[in-house]
Structures are given as structure tokens and as C-alpha cells.
Write a structure and sequence with these properties.
By secondary structure, this protein is of the alpha/beta class. Helix content is 22%, strand content 19%. The strands form five sheets. The chain has a ten-stranded mixed β-sheet. It has a four-stranded antiparallel β-sheet with strand order 14-15-16-19, covered by helices on one side. Helix 6 runs parallel beside helix 7.
Length: 490
């Protein structure tokens, strides 16, 4: 058992040292914005009130959407944790920067120091940068946030299920010394570059969301008189679910609903901190998820809102995720954006907003600032590639048309968590011929219309070949010409 409360003051400068004049504060409001990026873990497209959540309420997320813009066609770069985060922070397809899947606690690789992250880009413009939550881009010191543009870090280095504890909360060495979980080390809590505590029990997991939120509020208050970029990659709603006593049993949907209510509370606390510090009008807030729900875990997982499959697949439920943005005076209120966008677009968008220089290497993101401003005639992005495994091109999309390419598709049946072993049934659905879906009419990917629209199949097959020439494709043996390597421990 750990009391995280003493950790809240570690490594944090006093407020008085950061006090600025009223004139400095006024100047900040007329220039580039503060930026808060909230990233959930394994939250599905249908997990917030406006897209289908039921038996629990998300009033703060609803408020955020009512005061800003909800993107209904927003994608994560890949439907797995590390790869998705690499794509977000570098503005690249994960396979371009050497990432795939989720890094394990014994991995020797991580984000390459030659890549430019959002934090590094914004520091050029004088931003104070902080990361609070799950990192998962390499746990060795050289890969941690402070070495990649962040001034402050607090959180866990990888997923909260990568620890030697069974699903019932019992340490695995007390039950089965041959179990796969024996490979995992104790889950560390890191501040800066150093371990300051350990997450040992389910009750420790219960404290993570509140602790991250308190840290985030403190960061906002301490940096209220300067530009800041705050990245909050929550550990929840990844299993094992953890929720504080103030929300336990509060929803009508069990543990998952309780956790979502606490997540919504966390968003509310951050919005309140902005209001109390007179930062609300000059802060861009972005809320989204790293990928879709992990359906193996049944009622401990979220919902895709009717999209097909979930995390770990190239179907829509794996990669289309909720996204809400609010920036008063710039983003119009209560607007729905149905244009294609993805997490890789965040880096170039922030570059355009702040005037920061783009990385000197090829990126895949496209600025979506015109969409954020409400320009209905703008279509910055028309194409998207669905890569999985190490470098397998499984689908391509152009506008609202999606072509599924031959591959061994994964399916997740959604069993309830068990007391040991893999908790859900996983299967494969071999895709032997191309399939075409009109996502405008059929977002659930039920009806293959390849035979009806052969001209679209031909058009999208040309797009797939373009992707293979650039990034390669393990399924066809194409090596690609523009891939870079991840970093490796020296």
C-alpha cells in the first residue's frame, strides 16, 4: 500500500517563484495559446455521453464538446499503445519511426533521440512542457520524457497491467511461479528520471487518476504566467481498472462506468483550474484516446458505439476514437466536424498555431487548423493508411471509402476477466480478397461493396501501392524507402 499524497510536492517549484506581472498575463492572452492534451488509454468511440455512453454520465466532457468541436472521423495512428503514442508525438506513421505494438518492460528500444516530439518543437517557442501519466515510449532513462522535450514528468513508464499481479489482485508469486506474469517487474512511479514509488496493489491503481489530476492542476497553477504544453496520458481506462472511493459504485454500469465518471471528474478539475487562473480563454484543450476498447475484457472494457471490433485491429472500432477540442474565440462552439483527421495531424497543427518550426525529417501529419476554425470548405486530409504488426498494410482509406487488403484479421470476443491466464477469446478472420466499405453509409463495416464499385477498388489499390513504395508492407514483401529506426539502448 502506498500513500501517493507525499509525492505531490516533489520536484515542483514554489508558486511565488513563477509569479508574473498583470501585464505579462495580459500579453499571454493575446498571443499563442496554452495547450493541454488529454489522452485516454483504451477508451472507445462510444464511451462518452455524446456518442452513446449509458448508465453513467459525462457532464464535463459534454460541456467541453458543447463549448468546442467534436471530431467524428478522427483516428489513432495504430490501434496499440506505444505505436499510437509514437505517431501522436512525432506526427508520423508509427512504422515510419520504427514503432509497432506495445513495448514490454524488458524492451531495449524506445523513441529515437533524432526524432522531434511535440514538446521539443514547442520548447523552441518558449513553452514550459509537462507530461503526467503513462509514457510507453521506452522505459530506459534515455527514452523517458525529460530526454525528449519535457521539463516535468510524473507517471508510469508503460501500461498498468505490466506488473506481477493477477487479475484478482493477488501477487502472482503467491499463486503460480510458472505464470507468464512472473516476467514482469514491479510497476514503478517515476518523477523526473527517478523512481519515487511503486504500484503494488489494486488499491494503488485506484489512486492513479486522482494523483495525475492533482499533479496536472498543480502544473497549471505553477505555470499560469507563461506558455505551457501539458500532456496528460491517463493510465485508465486500461485494465486493471482502478477508481477512487469517491466514485466507486456510483454508476449503473459497474466498475467501468465508475472509472469513466472519475475520468470525467478529472477533466472537470482541469477545466476549473483554467477558469480559476484566468486561462480558459487562451488555452486549447484536446481530449481523445490512444485506440479503441480492449474488448477481451467484457464489462471491464468500453464500447465502440457500433463500430466494428476494437483495440488491436484495423477495423473502425480499433482506430476511430473520440476527439473533442475547445479553444474559445477560435474553435466555434457546439460544432461537429465530419472531416477526416488523425493524431499525427496534431504536431503540424500546433506548429502552425504557435509558429514553431516543423521537424527537419519527413512527417505524415497535416495541419487541421482550418477545420478547427470551422472552415467547412477545407479538407486537409483525404487519405489514411491502416498499418499493423511490424509493418503490415491492412487497409487504406480515401475520403469515406475504405479498402480492406488481404491479411489475417484479428477478432476479440469480449469475455469477462478471469483469475489467471488470458481473459478473453482471440480469433483470426482470414481476409483472402479485398473488401470495400462505404464508411459514410456503413461505419460498422457490415457490407462489402467491392463488386458494386470496381472503380473505387482500383483507385484505392493505387493508394495502397503508393503506401508500399513509401513505407513498405510486410504482407507483400515491399521494403519501403522512407522508414527510420527506433532508438536502442546504448
Amino acid at each position: 500500500m502506498i500513500d501517493f499524497k507525499p509525492l505531490l510536492g516533489i520536484g515542483v517549484a514554489s508558486l511565488t517563484a513563477l509569479q508574473g506581472t498583470a501585464q505579462q498575463t495580459a500579453a499571454l492572452k493575446t498571443s499563442t495559446p496554452n495547450i493541454i492534451f488529454i489522452l485516454m488509454d483504451d477508451m472507445g468511440y462510444g464511451d462518452i455521453g455524446r456518442t452513446g455512453a449509458n448508465q453513467y454520465d459525462t457532464p464535463n466532457l459534454n460541456r467541453l464538446a458543447n463549448q468546442g468541436m467534436q471530431f467524428t472521423w478522427y483516428y489513432c495512428p495504430q490501434a496499440v499503445s506505444s505505436a499510437s503514442r509514437a505517431g501522436l508525438l512525432t506526427g508520423c506513421y508509427p512504422n515510419r519511426v520504427g514503432f509497432s505494438g506495445a513495448l514490454m518492460p524488458w524492451a531495449q528500444n524506445g523513441i529515437n533521440p533524432e526524432e522531434t516530439t511535440i514538446a521539443e518543437m514547442l520548447k523552441v517557442k518558449g513553452y514550459r512542457t509537462g507530461a503526467i501519466g503513462k509514457w510507453h515510449l521506452g522505459h530506459h532513462r534515455e527514452f523517458l520524457p525529460l530526454q525528449h522535450g519535457f521539463d516535468y514528468y510524473f507517471g508510469i513508464p508503460y501500461s498498468n497491467d505490466m506488473w506481477p499481479v493477477d487479475f484478482d489482485g493477488v501477487p502472482i508469486h503467491l499463486k503460480d511461479t510458472t505464470h507468464r506474469l512472473m516476467k514482469y517487474p514491479v510497476l514503478p512511479l517515476i518523477e523526473g528520471n527517478e523512481k519515487v514509488a511503486e504500484v503494488k496493489t489494486l488499491s494503488d491503481q485506484d489512486k492513479l487518476t486522482t494523483t495525475y489530476t492533482e499533479k496536472a492542476v498543480a502544473f497549471i497553477e505553477e505555470n499560469r504566467n507563461r506558455h505551457f504544453f501539458l500532456y496528460i496520458p491517463h493510465s485508465m481506462v486500461h485494465i486493471p481498472l482502478g477508481v477512487s472511493e469517491k466514485f466507486r459504485g456510483k454508476s449503473r454500469q459497474g466498475m467501468y462506468g465508475d472509472v469513466m465518471m472519475e475520468v470525467d471528474w478529472s477533466v472537470g478539475e482541469i477545466l476549473n483550474a483554467l477558469r480559476k487562473n484566468n486561462l480558459e480563454d487562451n488555452t486549447l484543450v484536446i481530449f481523445t484516446s490512444d485506440n479503441g476498447p480492449w474488448l477481451n475484457f467484457g464489462d471491464h472494457a468500453g464500447t465502440t458505439g457500433g463500430l466494428r471490433e476494437g483495440k488491436g485491429t484495423s477495423w473502425e472500432g480499433g482506430q476511430r476514437v473520440p476527439c473533442i477540442m475547445r479553444w474559445p474565440g477560435v474553435i466555434p462552439e457546439g460544432v461537429i466536424c465530419n472531416k477526416l483527421a488523425c493524431a499525427m495531424d496534431i504536431l503540424p497543427t500546433l506548429a502552425e498555431i504557435t509558429g514553431a518550426p516543423l521537424p527537419d525529417k519527413k512527417i505524415d501529419g497535416i495541419s487541421i487548423l482550418p477545420l478547427m476554425r470551422g472552415d467547412k470548405n477545407s479538407t486537409p486530409r483525404r487519405e489514411f493508411y491502416y498499418y499493423y504488426q511490424v509493418n503490415s498494410l491492412e487497409a487504406v482509406q480515401k475520403d469515406y471509402w475504405k479498402l480492406i487488403l488481404p491479411h489475417s484479421g484479428r477478432t476479440y470476443r469480449g469475455n469477462k476477466p478471469g483469475n489467471g491466464g488470458w481473459p478473453g477469446a482471440t480469433g483470426t478472420e482470414k481476409i483472402e480478397a479485398v473488401r470495400l466499405y462505404d464508411l459514410r453509409r456503413d461505419p460498422g463495416e457490415w457490407y462489402d461493396v467491392a463488386e458494386v464499385y470496381p472503380e473505387k477498388v482500383n483507385e484505392l489499390e493505387k493508394l495502397a501501392e503508393k503506401a508500399r513504395q513509401d513505407l513498405g508492407d510486410d504482407l507483400t514483401g515491399a521494403p519501403g524507402t522512407n522508414r527510420r529506426k527506433a532508438g536502442f539502448v546504448k
